[in-house]
UniProtKB/TrEMBL annotation:
Residues 7-177 form the NAD(P)-binding domain. Keywords: Oxidoreductase. SUPFAM superfamilies: NAD(P)-binding Rossmann-fold domains. Its EC number is 1.6.5.2. PANTHER family: NMRA-LIKE DOMAIN-CONTAINING PROTEIN (PTHR47129:SF1), QUINONE OXIDOREDUCTASE 2 (PTHR47129). InterPro entries: NAD(P)-bd_dom, NAD(P)-bd_dom_sf, NmrA-type_oxidoreductase. This is Quinone oxidoreductase 2. GO terms for molecular function: NAD(P)H dehydrogenase (quinone) activity. Pfam families: NAD_binding_10.
Length: 281
């Protein structure tokens, strides 16, 4: 069975390929990337694959049985880009598509959900067997801010006491690889999230515990948080989006307690304390 991974030069794609090759060896694993040179170090077959170059995609999928479609990072362009890939997969007679969607995309208040809902609908209409992995938030989305918090002495956000059932990219990548290697039922939808939900106050307390410093969590109105992110150097549109995602988290948009992820990977998801320790290295 040949398995191809889109976005292979990205963080999730690389991790998924690492799991696949560790479990099956390099034969039959194909890395698809806009710039193949960026994935040459993976030691597997590479092919050029640019979501925007629709006319080239079907040829790049020749001989592929299972396609892992990692959602595009270009917010606002995703629906069209994903549609290009789905159409190409159908033309290349790919047998199954795995798609990385968003936790509870069908009902989520997170702004990213709308594009995922459209891609899910396109998959269902394509006639190609599919599996949808609705991924929750990456723990790294927050632990990447730890060093900034240590510099400023405070961890800021707009998530209130909203519970975040996050998991690490490695956890999600392992699930992706396991599903790709399995002969699971068609049209399956997984809701994937971490075992233990936490708040930003919990995160700040864990940072404090591990560093021996007092790093409180300061909850800000979304506009103030976005302004702080702009001051830190983020583009205004991205800053507004991040603040909005925190607000969605405060409304329960990033919570799930079904533990489907740990059941898939056969182990507990990575604890927050371990993720914080890794970020502090």
């Amino acid at each position: 069975m040949n398995i191809a991974v889109t976005g292979a030069s990205g963080q999730l794609g690389r991790l998924a390929i690492d799991v696949l090759t560790a479990r099956t060896g390099p034969a039959g694993i194909v890395a698809l990337a806009r710039t193949p040179d960026k994935v040459a170090d993976l030691g597997i077959e590479t092919r050029a694959f640019d979501y925007e170059q629709a006319e080239t995609l079907a040829a790049a999928l020749k001989g592929v049985d299972t396609l892992i479609l990692i959602s595009s990072s270009e917010i606002g362009q995703r629906v069209r880009q994903h549609r290009n890939v789905i159409d190409a997969a159908k033309a290349a007679t790919v047998k199954r598509i795995l798609y990385t969607s968003l936790l509870h995309a069908d009902t989520s208040v997170v702004s990213l959900a709308a594009e995922h809902r459209e891609t899910e609908a396109d998959l269902k209409a394509s006639g190609v067997d599919f599996t949808i992995l609705r991924n929750g938030w990456y723990t790294e989305n927050y632990t990447s801010s730890i060093h900034s918090a240590l510099q400023s002495g405070v961890f800021i956000g707009s998530a209130g006491q909203g519970k975040l059932a996050s998991a690490t990219r490695k956890d999600f990548a392992e699930a992706l690889a396991i599903v790709a290697m399995s002969d699971g039922p068609a049209s399956k939808v997984y809701e994937l999230a971490g075992d233990d939900a936490w708040t930003l106050s919990d995160l700040a307390a864990e940072i404090s515990r591990q560093t021996g410093r007092t790093i409180p969590y300061r909850d800000l109105p979304a506009a103030d948080y976005a302004a702080a992110l702009v001051t830190a150097g983020l583009p205004e549109g991205l800053a507004d989006a991040i603040a909005g995602w925190d607000v969605a988290a405060s409304q329960g948009g990033l919570f799930d307690d079904g533990k489907q992820l740990s059941k898939l990977i056969g182990r507990p998801t990575t604890p927050l304390a371990q993720a914080v320790a890794h970020a502090l290295q």
